[in-house]
Design a protein that fits this description.
This protein is an all-alpha fold. The chain is about 75% helix and about 0% strand. The chain is globular, with a radius of gyration of 20 Å. The termini are far apart.
Length: about 190
């Protein structure tokens, strides 16, 4: 039997400390991501680029890639191919992270981009965009927590949370591609 001393905390105390640190890091990263997006999209700038950057296409490609990887990862875990599932899910996280970086760069240059599509598409566009924005903010802590739970070997909790995270993350990825198409390819003026 080992006794705990003030210098040697118990395993339970160490686990609680690790969980608190993980929650703090996930919360801080979430706040940083949401804050950065709000700043680059909504803070007015003096001069805007014309919006003809190639970054929106890259963003759509990365969102589509994430959707394919997430779907593939789901199929793989259903077939008990854990290593391949892990690889797909980490690749999806990498694609989504690269998307975030290119999204921030693009919107730091151009700010908010207005919808110039046909009037009848406007409700469709905003019907996709509003839940996309809300769920994109939610997917940050969900994805980070889901990955953390798998990394820490808490697979029962990982599975439960992944059942919530996956459909939200998929919606964000697929709707991101659809928002891109509506925003950049349904307009009356060329961009």
């Amino acid at each position: 039997m080992t006794a705990t001393t003030p210098l040697a905390p118990s395993t339970a105390e160490a686990t609680v400390a690790t969980e608190r640190l993980a929650a703090w890091v996930i919360g801080a990263l979430t706040a940083i991501v949401i804050g950065a997006i709000a700043i680059v999209v909504y803070v007015p700038r003096g001069g805007h680029a014309d919006g003809s950057s190639w970054l929106p296409e890259i963003n759509a490609l990365l969102n589509g890639t994430a959707a394919v990887l997430l779907s593939t990862g789901y199929v793989l875990i259903r077939h008990r191919r854990v290593a391949a599932h892990r690889a797909c899910m980490l690749a999806a996280f990498a694609a989504s992270s690269l998307f975030l970086i290119t999204y921030l760069i693009h919107h730091a240059r151009v700010g908010s981009v207005s919808f110039h599509g046909a009037a009848w598409l406007r409700p469709v566009y905003f019907g996709l965009l509003v839940p996309h924005i809300v769920l994109a903010a939610l997917v940050v802590p969900l994805a980070l927590t889901t990955i953390y739970l798998a990394w820490s070997g808490r697979f029962d909790h990982h599975r439960r949370l992944a059942r919530v995270t996956l459909p939200i993350w998929l919606y964000v990825s697929v709707s991101g591609v659809l928002v891109y198409v509506l925003l950049y390819h349904s307009g009356t003026e060329g961009r």
